[in-house]
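2024-03-11 09:14:02 DEBUG pipeline.ingest accepted 1 chain
2024-03-11 09:14:02 DEBUG pipeline.ingest length=419
2024-03-11 09:14:03 DEBUG pipeline.predict start
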Amino acid sequence: MAWIEKRGKKWRVNWDIGTPENRDRRVASFDTPEEANQFKKKVEYELSTGTYIDVSKMTVGEYMDHWIRLHGDKLEPMTLNSYKHQIKNHIKPRLGKIKLAKLSPLHLVDFYQHELLEGKADVTRTRMEKMIKDQGAEQAKKSRNYKRAEKQLEKMKNEGTAGLSPTSVNYLHRILHKALKQAVKWQMVGRNVADAVDPPPKNKTELSYLHKQHVKAFISLIQDSSDYPIISAAIFTGMRQGELIGLRWQDIDFDHAIIHIRQQIQYLPETGRKPKKPKRGKMRDIPLPLNMNALLRKVKKAQDVIKEIYSEANKKDEQSEKYQDQDLVFCNYSGSPLDGTALTKRFQKLLVENGFEKIRFHSLRHTFATMARAAGIPLEDLQDLLGHADISTTKNMYVHIEIEPLRKSMSKLEEYYAE
């Protein structure tokens, strides 16, 4: 049974847990009688149904596990995997042992400051400690992985890169804020202490991309590469890497020159590479450029030849490897899905080998958008081509190239004035 009493300006909910012989008193304070009464009803219900959780003893680490277990099904698989990674490697090691009810804004301030200074190095140290625990100190310190970790720590120290970036710490704040907001809704805490803390602002980074003249030069230099078709598709369609890897022949209408974006392939440690709907489930159609139409037809013919080679080999030997036909446009020689990380590394190697600055594979999407805006394609059309849910996303991301369309518009005024 629970009861309410007024103490000063606060309303306190009191309740007992345990057995009649070994009772333990619990108290929670609230600013209004309505909040106290609502919490009292919750406690009484949980005590009567056996679902009560002793919040006063719950640590931040225990709560984060509880939250991710109950809240995880509301998150996208990659987001859930990312949250779990951040909670395991950063939040629980530093905040995990603090009682949830005792967590204060100062705890978060100290946490963010520490992560800015040592967050990345802490993960490496934890990995080294695990090696020692699993293998013993003497054996672990002789291993290649331990020595590599030592070199990484030394490099971080010398280069001043032991901490996480402000953007990464800002992300940790967002996770904590979201989790603690739910704790308030569940009436496990009286307030969200993350509201009282300003996280470090995200890094302002300029989007990297290839300029038009560089695109022409790069494309001409890599035509013998097996990745030439998928790199070209990224440049001339603006598709995300996962969408390109998940593109199927059934999604391409050659006669009407349209690409239907219906799925992407996503990698998760627990499940491997699996197809799923495009980002935010937003399917879209992209006109197939003439040069890509011709190139993809060549890819189709080459792939048919490979399938025939596998078929002939299977006829001669039933035990030989079979073609993994998943109808994928861009795939490994055996038909299996490409590895996105390996694709990025090969792309960056091609850049360096041909005298270009290293950029991410995703930057090819920015390259497409840059050329599209410079060519005069309206923002609304670019939003549809890129699959952005909100046009403000498109405008904010590509503000660096807005001068080109404006310059063209201004030239029209000059032509009008000169008449």
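2024-03-11 09:14:41 DEBUG pipeline.report The longest helix spans residues 105-135.
2024-03-11 09:14:41 DEBUG pipeline.predict end
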